[in-house]
Amino acid sequence: MYCGIDIGTSAIKCAIIDEGGAVVGFGRAGVGLYRGAHPDAWESDPAEWLKATANAFGQAAAVPGYDPARLRGLAISGNGPTLVAAGADGLPIGLASSWMDRSAVAEAERVSIAAGRRIDPSFYLPKALKLMEGPLADNIKRFFSGPEYLAFMLGALPVSFLPDPFYDRHIWDLETAAALGLDEALFPPYIAPARTIGRVSAQAAEATGLPAGLPLVSAFPDFLAALAGSGTVRPGMACDRSGSSEALNLCATKPFADLSIFSLPHAIPGLWNLSGGLSTSGKALEWFSRAGGYTGGETDNLNREAAQVAPGAGGVLFLPYLTGERAPLWNKDIRGAFLGLSMNNGRKEMARAVLESIAFALRLSAERMATGGFAVDVVRCSGGAARDGTLNTIKAGVLKVPVEIPLLPDSEPMGDACAVAVALGDHQSLEEASRAMVGIGKIFKPERELTGLYDDRYSAWKQALDAVLGLSGEF
Asked: What is the structure's pLDDT at 297?
């Protein structure tokens, strides 16, 4: 058996998976996201990650089919760019800077000048520069990304996962860091995925319930883990990674022609991942659950009510841009909006509009990719929203392609398990492991009678987006 753990924005997920890809056990435990001192600062607590790992693993292992003697390795993925600063004792200094933290604006401008290209405030290096010029700088001895730090706490060597040399420019960017006067010793050395990087320590075993001595294996950023774990390993396939944020990740043979779409090497050597999406999808649902007065702020209640409304949301449109946006809009100032409201509309129509807006934002990315000659022919949905039939049906209708749901919708832990299988020699490559271990549970096909309706609503949504883009920075 293999164990995969993924650090998400709101939860840590753990799956125990057998050699054939069957899920033996699954667990999920919540973690917090906290506002920092700056309005655009968002933080996570690494101490919560360890507690949540114990909780999630305990759930996954509490099944009749689990045999600790058969558990052979563990790999960890996670969201990025989430930055942890650690002291000489290895303990975190303050909270981790979440991937949603876009407060290092001035630092990003300086990094962009030094790098000779645009660097977003959410990236690692602007955050690291800000910390190293702050009051805690003398205490900081090393920086980690989230999953590497959790692995380090469990007993791994201090390393940085590097799926391809190209990724240095998006991780530490060591050449630019040196130009800015940052010591290379601050950044753990790179290591490729599917390598053994240590074993679970006795102390970590006592804290988490993981078997002491269990091999720890290098993995990937969460979006690459999801590609492997959803079986998105051929050109034309896209993985829709749903969660607090959401991105359409298209498997391609070459990078996109310009920077409007993220182009990064795929987890499979020789392939590329083209990505665009929205920073607040699940977060937008959570926000409207609270704002709309749903019991306990639960998104399940919102989704059930939205399902009672016909496609088109009674003419209501929603723009889900609550914290600015990255690819393909690249606008930190854009904000969300409801449009088209009438006396005939209420909470149900607004809820439906929020769901439809997620699919419209994904279509915006798909259309941008199509302008470069990259067509999406099938989407595999990963994450919590993959379990929502209403949203999957909407996505299939808006995107006009089949939406497939893997047997394990939380694809990141499955991708981690694939990395463990390769590290242990059970498969020769990540592509081989992914094809052998990933299965599909359900397929949602576009409803032809709704194609015209969704085309019209999407056209209106884009006009609304253009209007709000014209107001960016004036709110």
From this structure: 65
d(CA 475, CA 335): 8
**What is the rounded CA–CA span in Å between residue 143 and residue 268?**
27
**How confident is the model at residue 332, as a pLDDT?**
84
> Which pLDDT band holds residue 39 (cuts at 50, 70, 90)?
confident
User: Pick from 219, 250, 274: which residue ends a domain?
Assistant: 219
* Residue 469 within any structural domain of the chain: yes
Q: What is the predicted pLDDT for the residue at 326? A: 86
Please state, in angstroms and rounded to a whole number, the distance separating the CA atoms of residues 391 and 394.
5
Helix (H) or strand (E) holding 446: none
Q: Are strands 11-17 and 2-7 parallel, antiparallel or unpaired?
A: antiparallel
Chain centre distance of CA 279: 10
Alpha helices in 62-186 (DSSP H): 105-115, 124-132, 146-154, 174-179
Q: Output the pTM of the full model.
A: 0.88
Please report which residue ranges of 276-410 form alpha helices under DSSP H: 282-291, 299-306, 347-371, 389-399
Contact assessment for residue 227 and residue 247, using Cβ atoms and an 8 Å cutoff: no
Confidence label for 449 from pLDDT (cuts 50, 70 and 90): very high
Distances in whole angstroms, Cα of residue 266 to Cα of each of 220, 232, 325: 11, 10, 23
Same domain, 429 and 402: yes
pLDDT at 186 over 70: yes
Range of the domain at 194: 2-219
The whole-number average pLDDT for the span 186-196 is: 98
What b/e readout covers 418-445, taking b as 16+ CB neighbours within 10 angstroms? Answer: bbbbbbbebbeebbbbbbbbbeeeeebe
Are the CB atoms for 413 and 364 separated by under 8 Å? no
